Amino acid sequence: MKARIVFLVLFVVLIISSCRNASKKPEDFVLAGTGSLTESQKSGSEAIEEIYGYYSSSLEIANLFQVAGLPFSSDYLASSINISEQSGSFEKALYLGILGADLGYLNMYEKTGTSMELITSIEKLAVELNVSQFFDFDNIKRLSLNRSDLDSLLFLSLNSYKRIDEYLREYNKAELSTLIIIGAWIEAQYFATQVIKQYPEELLKDRIGEQKYLLNDLISIVSPYCSQDDKFIELCKYLRNVAAKYNNVNISYTKGEPTSTVKNGILVVTQTETSMVEMTDEQLKEIIEITGIVRNKLISN
Question: pTM to 2 decimals?
């Protein structure tokens, strides 16, 4: 079964990042723990660029669940979310990311009927956030139902998100873009940690461990808003709580030469570096537990 993507914010659920920017070394990263965020962390724009690098990494992880023969489970979905009850832009942006990740999971398993319902909810949120003009929802629905090419959907989604990010930042609404990314990440992290509880795949364990660096980038881009209001204060606390469980997870990288291919007229660069994740079963257990706690609090109405 081939994995499929129809929305940018679901990328994290597909990649559970398989690589990071090859120009960075592990010592270049500063993990934000339970304390205050420091000036040594990357700026928001630098972190955004790094996150784009994660999104465009190797597509091999897109069908990780299928290759491993892991079954679909509706129990992983954020079914308790009722978008009609969400009145604030904070919740709408966060849920746009979360539901986008759910949509990706459904489409990987070709649950097209349920996907159409989710696309409708996502479209409603996008309209209310005034970003629906950047998504061709008719085309997204058509591509989803027709089981079209993964690369085309990937390009469509990434391009749409970049336009949304530029728009929100231009109109001083960068915090909404940040919330979308965080929503997608926490939902994807939740999928991975729930799956590994039942199916302890070593590759998936490594991908979860590698989230240490991506989580650091997420904390970097949300840090300017951590004292903005009570909702952001709480969200930042949640992310730091997850980051704290990664403190003793060690990752080493062996650099490789990137390869380039042209697909549908688009240059695709694939990083070939390898990683080694040192994470004990107890550390993994703690990450699974805190991820579940945080995610369930965020989707609570």
Answer: 0.78
Query: Quick one: 295 exposed, middle or buried, by C-beta within 10 A (0-12, 13-18, 19+)?
Result: buried
The one-letter amino acid code at 44 reads G
Q: How many residues does the chain have?
A: 301
Q: At what angle do helices 230-244 and 174-198 cross, to 10 degrees?
A: 40
3-state secondary structure of 254: strand
| Cβ-contact 33, 244 below 8 angstroms | yes
CA atoms within 13 A on the CB side of 290: 15
- Residue 261 or 287, more confident: 287
Per-residue pLDDT of 163-176, as tens digits, reads 877 888 888 898 99
Kindly report, residue by residue over 23-45, the tens digit of the pLDDT.
343 333 333 333 333 333 444 55
Rg, C-alpha atoms of the chain: 18
Instruction: Look at residue 36 in the predicted model and tell me its pLDDT.
Output: 34
The continuous run of DSSP H or E covering 268 comes out as: strand 266-270
Question: What burial letters (b/e) apply to 145-174, b meaning 16+ CB within 10 Å?
Answer: eeeeebeebbbbbbebbeebbebbbeeebb
- Cβ-Cβ contacts under 8 Å for 42 (sequence gap 6 or more): 50, 217, 220
